[in-house]
Amino acid sequence: MFRAGLRNTMAFAGVSVCMLFGAAMPAAADDHVVKVTPLGSHDGEFCGRDRALVFEDPNGTRILYDAGRTVAGPDDPRLGKIDVVLVSHMHGDHVGDQRISKTNQGTCGSPDTGVSTLPQSNTVDIAVKHGSKIVTGSEMPAFFAAKLKDAGGDPANSLLVRFGGEREVGGVAITTVPAVHSNGVSPSFLTGPLAEYLAAAGVGASVGPPTGYVLRFSNGLVVYLSGDTGITAEQRLVVKDHYGAGLVVMNIGDTFTTGPKQAAYVINDLVQPKAVIASHANEPATSGGMVQEGTRTALFRDSVTVPVHVPLSGRTMAFNGMASCVSGCN
């Protein structure tokens, strides 16, 4: 289980030892890393609809987070093997109500996501093709179990982990944490009279509150995935004080989630990680792989006191157990 604990480093017989979750463990070597690969709409850029990240544990377990619209379906060659799919909430830009046909279509600010995935979703299509587990909290597991069954998959592959609990899949410990957002299922994901009634009323079905995630990898790296959220007290009391997250994937897009200044407060004052990956910027944040000045991403980068890593699509970053990027970061 996750354990609360302080992270301290000490020297013992010339070997660096990390105190994490109250237990001593050797500091990870540079080749014992968690790989993080963004799957965006345009190669080498951080674009307006980019959400998806693939995490690969040193043991080979691969986790897709919020496939959204920029993964080109289950046959996207960038996916490789996918063991686990995480979904923070049911909005179309996260679960995937439509998707790209291939990369570099349209513009970075307005990518072409014209392939409909309704009523199933990009998430379900990927999970069925790859035999992946879908791990969610709240009331989402029952929804995904039904979708998997409808698509010819195994409904038992939809797994629950609620706040305060933990589920280990492929050697990676997964828990959900609170996010403050909405989580209605659009009628477009549904069929039959219920879908028609909801659409006519202008409302969606409820699957409970949205979530963030905390992941603990086999090299000791602890990652907080904020999901779409505003500022919450749990970001300090739970994510920092209990789980001790070293790396954060932080949404910065404003209006729909934390803006860059609010996100910077979360990082600097609440979670206080070792490093952060910007996410969900809702803008063409880069050009030629370089952050454009005047963007939300630039403001966030300049407001944060820890290293900010920009998720350039297709560029793999590697993090050791202490959340230091050892390769691939800009």
UniProtKB/TrEMBL annotation:
Signal peptide positions (record): 1-29
Residue span of region Disordered: 96-116
UniProt protein name: MBL fold metallo-hydrolase
Organism: Marinobacter adhaerens
Skewed-composition ranges (Polar residues): 101-116
Limits of the Metallo-beta-lactamase domain: 61-280
Lineage top rank: taxon: Bacteria
Family annotation (SUPFAM superfamilies): Metallo-hydrolase/oxidoreductase
UniProtKB keywords: Signal
